[in-house]
Amino acid sequence: MAALLSSTAANASMIIWLVVLFAFMYFFMIRPQQKEMKKKNAMLAELAVGDTVLTTSGFYGVVIDINDDTVIVEFGSNKNCRIPMQKAAISAVEKPDAE
Known about the structure:
By secondary structure, the protein is α+β, with helices and mostly antiparallel strands. The protein is built from one helix and five strands, in the order αβββββ. It has two domains: about 1-45; about 50-95, Roll (SH3 type barrels). About 45% of the residues lie in helices and about 30% in strands. The longest helix is centred in the N-terminal third of the chain and has 44 residues, at about 1-45.
């Protein structure tokens, strides 16, 4: 009888630790990633023509056209370099100053 109680207590203890481990993983890994994804999706939803963007490769440019999941970005000061790219390649957006 004592062995059965010991076995049950060990199983309960193991289940409690597994729950604690999954809770830890959720709050420190999964939840922050979901919040970051929501923030990026909101940023891309507010993207407009004329916004200055930073691409994931480190280039700054100005948005000149937007399609469903593609944007055309103009790079450089000579205004001749226009490259279509996916919205997912944009890492930061800076709105133009409203003066």
